């Protein structure tokens, strides 16, 4: 900051003294721009003549501003939640999941000797939706969206949350609100597993692999033996919860794999 | 004393906004960009080349949509190949794909605002930035119309609006003039010149005339490689009356391509 000009210089400037040379005027003006104290001193030193000029200008400006139409305010943009979450066409996949679960519930109703088919299929319920959430087919503007910084694990998690918000109530209803923990925890664990495995081989392939594996290893033998496996006994709920937490934590470590949408 | 912002005094750490070395990018199984060397600074650059030259694949790689299969790619001084963090580059990026899908029920304003939100712009600045982008492409009258009611040219302009909403340092436009009428194309050239003063604009097009009129530099690619790079004036100087084309720039374009093909055949 330069040295403050003397009050005498300021008064001479205010009176537009011709004796003040151009270089001093410049340096004074530069100082005044940055120094509120000196501006206040200048205001105190103004002559009646310049005060009259300023008052006239202010009056005319006010009149002109009042006469002009108000500048148009940019219209407020509303972005409802619906648009942020459901720009993707996840709904067909969710509808298919609902249909399968409804069929399973009916099967249990008419063939009570079978083990709970809804419980057996519950872990797989979110997977079709999750697979669709991270594929370019699900989003018409995928090419635009995937060039933005929002693309990444956060976007995938947001879409997965949307899928779960739709699938979980359906699961609860299909299971008749029985054994809620065993309905929900395995499905959360499978969702986390699909994301973690997806970071290596693609979410789409991971979802298919998990569905095939669970169906052949657990669902088919259980229906054949007409008995629920130990995995789905009430005692294993804690293990499912722990598995969900571990898999989710590992998925966060693999966040770098989700920076680009898969092109195929 | 005038306050100098940090943006004005910031050292430019990157001599080139776009720097590709031996870049390879796949389109499906085919290597559409194969060993491309490219250095582009600020200004408007026209990307020319025959069909299948790899223009769109190159654009996708530069937009960080496609992962490079080989070579080095540095955008705005940051490497974007491999596992690098892409967010800083993507925030400074504007991209209009060749075919852009859109949400038919969104209005133009909602669409541009949604893209601004995805580009992580500060929330308070979004409404005014959206209005400005829509004004700049001349869609103000249709700002609250749904996208499904727009004509092809208007949709293209809505696409340009979303690309420039964040004042990108790097703007990639793939066939932006398709569907624009002659008057809109003139306005668009004016907009391009304006944008190119302080950012790197790369325009892929088939219209040699657009390039000659609005670009500061011409980049010609064929079969995934850089064939020629120079000013529009030197492009015009390459051709003479003996070459195919209706204008001096078109003759220059076909002269360079013919010479390149003759060299490749040898």
Secondary structure layout:
The complex is a heterodimer of chains A (264) and B (266).
Chain A: H1 7-14, H2 22-34, H3 36-45, H4 48-67, H5 81-85, H6 91-110, H7 117-121, H8 127-133, H9 142-145, H10 153-174, H11 180-201, H12 203-225, H13 237-253
Chain B: H1 6-9, E1 18-27, E2 30-40, E3 43-48, H2 55-62, E4 70-75, E5 78-79, H3 87-91, E6 93-96, H4 108-118, H5 126-136, H6 152-164, E7 170-174, H7 182-195, E8 200-204, H8 208-214, E9 217-222, E10 225-230, H9 232-238, H10 248-265
Helix pairs in contact in B: 4-5, 4-6, 5-6, 9-10
Organism (chain A): Paractinoplanes ovalisporus
Transmembrane segments (chain A): 85-107, 113-135, 156-174, 180-199, 206-225, 237-256
Protein name (chain A): Zf-HC2 domain-containing protein
Written account of the structure:
The complex is a heterodimer of chains A (264) and B (266). Chain A is an all-alpha fold. Chain A has two domains: 7-67; 81-259. Helix content of chain A is 67%, strand content 0%. Chain A has helices spanning 7-14, 22-34, 36-45, 48-67, 81-85, 91-110, 117-121, 127-133, 142-145, 153-174, 180-201, 203-225, 237-253. In chain A, helix 8 (127-133) packs antiparallel against helix 12 (203-225) and helix 10 runs antiparallel to helix 11 (180-201). Chain A starts with 6 loop residues before the first helix and ends in an 11-residue tail after the last helix. The mean pLDDT of chain A is 83. Chain B is α/β, with parallel strands linked by helices and 266 residues long. Chain B has a domain at 93-167. Chain B has helices spanning 6-9, 55-62, 87-91, 108-118, 126-136, 152-164, 182-195, 208-214, 232-238, 248-265, and strands at 18-27, 30-40, 43-48, 70-75, 78-79, 93-96, 170-174, 200-204, 217-222, 225-230. In chain B, the strands form two sheets. Chain B has a six-stranded mixed β-sheet, sandwiched between helices. A four-stranded antiparallel β-sheet of chain B has the order 2-1-4-5, with helices on one face. In chain B, helix 7 links the parallel strand 7 and strand 8 (200-204). Chain B is globular. The N and C termini of chain B lie far apart (65 Å).
